[in-house]
Write a structure and sequence with these properties.
46% helix; binds magnesium ion; Rossmann fold; Heat Shock Protein 90; five-stranded mixed sheet; 12 strands; 3 domains; 11 helices; alpha/beta; binds adenosine-5'-triphosphate; single chain; five-stranded parallel sheet
Length: 371
């Protein structure tokens, strides 16, 4: 698995760069052909496919542990409950979903988007597995588990310690014993072409390594499968203090002022609300020229600029150049519409690609202001 990880990690990385170039060019082509709706439609199809490919690559990068993780201390119970709510709408209605989520507050240190993806992949697999059952059933359980010698005897891949134990069980056909080791390999799939790529469990496997946990599969042939995820438990008291610390110092605003620059009214509007809700003051500009003017006027007050790159009148990178002439130490995050670095020299720049996860964005803003 290790060697495979190195191999796919390398391929995925190169592939990601090419894909970024492809989506970037499609984006530009779309802008140039706005008056030809049938061309735009074809380009949009190509764009959708590229983003699907990017999703695949993301799973591979997680498997190879090459993607960025954003570890945080949080209570897993409420997060799992929320995640299930989000996923529920995609579960076919004839499937009975049983939730047994412990009330005991279970703290872990983890990357929320990876945990979300893990649960999604396991539930998707369970849905596929029970598709032919008369009374399809999926059980999602979360509890605290002390892994001791007795447990390890029954579950040889387990490691001693206190864990949050998350499991997804189904009453599908199960997995033949001699195939169980293979299910975590990337591209191992028994599903029809177009139905599965065999990356879901590979992603889960890599993500569990990132979390210093482990995953194992169990079950009885013809009666169902159970996937068990084990995440190291955090002491709630430590979790409490450090997550408070996280909230105040790492991701929340302390009343600093951000100049938000984007030519799309929607982006500016929602961005303003989101940033304010995080505790920042916000000024806005709709192009580079306006941003330069605002900075000239308020330079002493502005702690950070978050700026789109492609904008009418004056682009983000050119605006940045002019602003840096006023203050070379100005802090700027570029929010790019597609590939990081496709349009600007990124070597010394902080860049985030749109659409960005709010959490990622808030952490990056905090980090950049504090730098
Ligand atoms: N709950 C399950 N019951 C029975 N077999 C399963 C279950 N989960 C996974 N498998 C087997 O493991 C294989 C690999 O699963 P994995 O999630 O990695 O890929 P996939 O579901 O085939 O495709 P993808 O997740 O990329 O769409 C599946 O094709 C299936 O054979
Ligand atoms: Mg799957």
């Amino acid at each position: 698995m290790q060697a495979l990880g190195t191999l796919v990690g390398g391929i995925a990385h190169d592939f990601n760069n090419m894909l970024a170039g492809i989506t970037g060019n499609i984006y530009l082509a779309k802008k140039l052909t706005q008056d030809k709706p049938n061309v735009v439609e074809k380009l949009t199809n190509a764009e959708d496919l590229s983003f699907r490919a990017a999703e695949m690559i993301k799973q591979l990068l997680t498997f190879a542990r090459k993607d960025r993780v954003n570890m945080k201390l949080f209570a897993l119970n409420s997060f799992i409950n929320e995640t299930i709510k989000l996923i529920q709408s995609s579960i076919p209605e004839n499937i009975t979903v049983i939730q047994e989520i412990s009330d005991e507050v279970i703290h872990i240190s983890g990357d929320k988007s990876q945990i979300h993806q893990i649960l999604l992949n396991l539930i998707n697999n369970a849905c596929d597995a029970v598709a032919q059952e008369d009374a399809p059933r999926i059980t999602i359980r979360l509890e605290v588990l002390k892994v001791d010698k007795a447990y390890i005897k029954k579950h040889p891949s387990a490691q001693a310690g206190d864990y949050a134990h998350l499991s997804v069980a189904d009453n599908g056909p199960g997995i033949p014993e001699n195939n169980r080791a293979r299910v975590f390999e990337p591209f191992y799939t028994t599903k029809d072409v177009g139905k599965g790529t065999g990356l879901g469990l590979a992603m889960v496997f890599g993500a569990m390594k990132n979390h210093h946990g482990f995953v194992e599969v169990d079950g009885i042939e013809n009666e169902g499968s159970i996937f068990n995820i084990y995440l190291p438990l955090m002491d709630p008291q430590i979790a409490e203090t450090s997550s408070n610390r996280n909230n105040v110092n790492t991701t929340q605003g302390l009343g600093e002022t951000i100049l938000l620059v984007d030519d799309e009214a929607d982006v500016v509007d929602t961005g303003k609300h989101v940033l304010r809700s995080m505790g920042y003051r916000v000024m806005t500009a709709i192009n580079g020229q306006q941003a330069v003017a605002m900075y000239k006027e308020h330079s002493g007050k502005i702690d950070l600029i978050v700026m789109d790159v492609i904008m009418p009148v004056l682009s983000g990178d050119k605006a940045a150049k002019q602003i840096r002439e006023i203050n070379p130490a100005v802090k700027i995050i570029f929010a790019t519409g597609y590939d990081k670095g496709a349009q600007i020299e990124t070597e010394n720049e902080v860049v985030i690609s749109k659409p960005f996860a709010i959490e990622k964005m808030s952490a990056l803003i905090r980090k950049t202001i504090d730098s």
